[in-house]
Write a structure and sequence with these properties.
The protein folds into two domains: about 240 residues, Aminopeptidase (3-Layer(aba) Sandwich); about 110 residues, Alpha-Beta Plaits. The protein has nine helices and 17 strands. The strands form five sheets. The protein has a seven-stranded mixed sheet, sandwiched between helices. Strands 12-14-10-15 form a four-stranded antiparallel sheet, covered by helices on one side. It has about 375 residues and is of the alpha/beta class. The mean pLDDT is about 95. Helix 7 crosses helix 9.
Length: about 375
């Protein structure tokens, strides 16, 4: 069997059949069908999508993870599921690595984690709860990179993702007539204060971080009513988990102070937290050696720093002794990840699969 065309066929299937987080039923069924065709044992679950599979023999376990969910977005005027983050490519590359390895004589077990709901930031936790990391010493992930990070043909041994989290808030004040503002408690004044406050948060300029309002809803159709109530949301990001903790504390304190200053109620909750990367030097060096072995020193890129987030890093947060790294695959990807018309050079799929296979062998 020629592996490269098979990898491309897998990609084409998953690209044409995207499913959003926690609803990847047909995707899971297709993955099980592929594994069954090669008589590779796998385990599915009654309560969540995704599956685990293993090849090889031995006491040691090395694992690789592929995320399987798509985004929900408008594409060509139609709102639909869409693989604009490249998880279809991730599945194809991991399946390709499996094909390259399945007939090898392996002295360890290699576990394949096909994980749901990365886009919701908690699919990795579901796999951990279902035994994905049992006995695992080394874990690898893989992801296509935008062209501004890596060109086609280059592969990086690690991606240093940042941390991300959302805050959802509600302001409860008192409506007032536009001619009598003193009788109310204006929620828009509070929103303005929140905006000014988050722009005044400063840490070291050598640290990468941001906090910004991404959603505001206040007022109705009557323009002579000062709204007392409003809802808002923040997108908060940091390149390190330490700065993320400081950001959250500063924002909590600031919102409480604003509520007291304006004598108004503000309720908020943090949601969809994703930790920053905790990359193992050992795993990164193994991946680096594999890249050099497969595509040469000239195509081996340094680790990639990106402000994006990925729930892959919950695996190391929950199991700190785990040696983990996510490989970045250059593919001339444009206009960008999550863009509805995202496209890339599909020859990158076989490169990624071969590098992954070699990384797993060397671990």
């Amino acid at each position: 069997m020629e592996i490269k065309p098979q990898i491309e066929a897998y990609f084409s299937h998953f690209h044409a059949h995207p499913e959003v987080s926690w609803k990847e039923a047909e995707t899971t069924k297709k993955l099980a069908e592929i594994l069954g065709d090669f008589n590779i044992p796998y385990r599915t679950f009654d309560d969540v999508t995704g599956l685990l599979a293993e090849i090889g023999e031995g006491d040691r376990v090395v694992a690789v993870r592929a995320d399987i969910d798509a985004l929900w977005q408008e594409v060509g005027g139609k709102v639909q599921a869409n693989h604009s983050c490249g998880h279809d490519a991730n599945m194809a590359m991991v399946l390709g690595a499996l094909l390259y390895l399945k007939n090898e004589t392996l002295t360890k077990r290699i576990r394949f984690i096909f994980q749901p709901a990365e886009e919701q930031g908690n699919g990795s936790l579901a796999m951990i709860e279902r035994g994905a990391l049992e006995g695992v010493t080394h874990l690898y992930g893989v992801h296509l990179r935008p062209i501004e990070e890596l060109p086609f043909g280059k592969v990086a041994p690690a991606i240093h993702h940042g941390s991300g989290i959302f805050l959802k808030g509600k302001i409860t004040g008192v409506d007032a007539h536009g001619a009598r503002p003193h009788q109310g408690k204006n929620a828009i004044d509070v929103i303005a204060a929140i905006h000014q406050f988050i722009k005044s948060i400063y840490f070291s300029p050598f640290e990468s971080y941001s906090a910004k309002l991404t959603n505001i809803q206040a007022g109705g159709d009557s323009l002579n009513i000062i709204p007392g109530s409003a809802s808002f949301a923040l997108d908060v990001r940091s390149q390190s988990n330490e700065i993320m903790d400081k950001l959250r504390t500063r924002i909590d304190e600031g919102l409480a102070s604003i509520a007291a200053l304006y004598d108004i109620a503000i309720d908020w909750e943090w949601t969809d937290y994703t930790p920053a990367a905790e990359v193992s030097q050992e795993a990164m060096e193994i991946a680096d050696a594999a890249i050099r072995s497969v595509i040469g020193d000239e195509n081996t890129a340094p680790p990639v720093d990106t402000t994006g987030a990925d729930d892959f890093h919950f695996y190391t947060i929950k199991k700190p002794e785990l040696k983990a790294a996510m490989l970045g695959i250059g593919a001339d990807l444009a206009p960008g990840l999550h863009h509805p018309d995202m496209a890339f050079n599909r020859d990158a799929l076989d490169i990624g699969a071969r590098v992954l296979a070699e990384t797993l062998k060397k671990s």
